[in-house]
Design brief:
- With about 375 residues, the protein is mostly helical.
- About 65% of the residues lie in helices and about 10% in strands.
- A three-stranded mixed sheet has the order 1-2-8. Strands 6-3-7 form a three-stranded antiparallel sheet.
- The radius of gyration is 21 Å and the shape is globular.
- The N terminus is likely disordered.
């Protein structure tokens, strides 16, 4: 009965969302169709979910799945008990979607720019991607944008947040990736429920990533095996090495695109820069459980859209890490500071975040970096 009542509420919420889409003056069938697939995809996800407690009690549940779900629930409890993240029905149910990703995000950027294209949506404001539950639909949009001259990147997404409007389930799409991925995902997505600024993707994603890193560090210190800690250290080292490549390349791309070179020369120089980035990436040592999606993209066809997508999750991350360090890693204090920043206009918000970073000494900045690939991650 309880789940039937929830289903009824979901149907009402979907109807309201569709009505709002029409009422806000969406133009053309494509916009209404986009919202339709979004609502339909999410309702299907919610329809197939099952309470994890029921699966843990059911004799027919596969033993490996039971173990993974029990671990996911321990991580979920830790998120609220130790990290101060919302204590609600999110990640208390499980949905097997029978596919590797829940949605596919389309990113686009002009041929000679690293500025990601915006799409403005209900509830979340303007974001630098557009998500589809059907990969074919995502690829179709990407093809249309390429015809308009954009670089495009279609990336599979294992999880997303409804910002607390619904009880988001644990999904097979990230459960399959292992313990570290489950912990990162739960901490990251619950952070979005805590603080979210419509229309400011870099702020939202960098904040959630900072919480993800701090949460994973604490969870590993409390509950992680030596094997998991070693796997995490290898992943952090690889990410840190890869991230070290990017700033100089972004600067060189920006300088190239702003130059007065003829179009043909710009295109040739762009291809040479991406070739250099591929070669630099190829020299990195592989890490257990690394981010295979990023690896495939940089090895196969890196472009402006892909490079812009990476910035969304890391552009403000060093500033958030420094802010957390200056709060002595006290998460409630950190959350209050972030909530105060969220209330500011976008330009003031970003300036307030970046100002301490530019003034910080090199040693302080290094000490603040949680995801720097080394050091004592179990500090007191």
């Amino acid at each position: 009965m309880r789940w039937r009542r929830r289903a009824a509420r979901l149907r009402r919420a979907a109807a309201l969302l569709l009505a709002a889409g029409v009422a806000t003056g969406l133009t053309g069938c494509s916009q209404i169709g986009y919202y339709g697939q979004a609502v339909g995809g999410h309702l299907e996800l919610m329809r197939v979910r099952v309470p994890i407690d029921e699966l843990l009690r059911a004799p027919a549940t596969d033993p490996d799945l039971r173990h993974r779900l029990a671990e996911a629930q321990a991580i979920r409890d830790f998120a609220s008990r130790e990290l101060g993240l919302p204590d609600n029905g999110s990640y208390r149910s499980y949905a097997d979607l029978d596919r590797p990703y829940v949605v596919w995000n389309v990113f686009a950027a002009p041929e000679l720019s690293l500025q990601a294209k915006d799409w403005c949506l209900l509830v979340v404001g303007c974001v630098n991607y557009r998500g589809y539950y059907d990969r074919r639909a995502a690829e179709q949009l990407a093809a249309e944008l390429r015809e308009q001259g954009y670089d495009t990147y279609v990336g599979g997404v294992p999880a997303y947040s409804t910002l607390g409007h619904f009880d988001d389930p644990v999904l097979n799409t990230f459960l399959r990736l292992g313990t570290l991925a489950v912990a990162r995902t739960v901490f990251h997505e619950l952070a979005h429920q805590l603080v979210f600024v419509p229309g400011d993707t870099p702020f939202n994603e960098s904040f959630a990533t900072a919480v993800e890193h701090e949460g994973l560090r604490r969870w590993l210190c409390a509950h992680g095996s030596s094997e998991l800690r070693a796997a995490d250290a290898a992943q952090r080292q690889r990410r840190a090495a890869f991230k070290a490549l990017l700033p100089s390349y972004r600067e060189r791309f920006a300088a190239l695109y702003a130059s007065e070179l003829p179009l043909a020369e710009k295109r040739a120089a762009k291809a040479a820069l991406f070739a250099g980035l591929r070669n630099g990436h190829a020299g990195l040592q592989p890490a257990r459980g690394g981010r295979a999606g990023d690896d495939r993209q940089v090895d196969e066809a890196p472009n402006n859209a892909w490079l812009a997508s990476l910035a969304l999750y890391s552009e403000l991350l060093p500033a958030f890490e420094l802010l957390l360090a200056r709060q002595d890693h006290d998460l409630p204090r950190f959350y209050r500071e972030v909530a105060s920043l969220a209330a500011l206009p976008t330009r003031d918000r970003h300036a307030a975040l970046r100002s301490p970073l530019s003034a910080a000494k090199d040693g302080e900045r290094r000490d603040a970096a949680v995801d720097n690939g080394g050091g004592d991650t179990c500090r007191q």
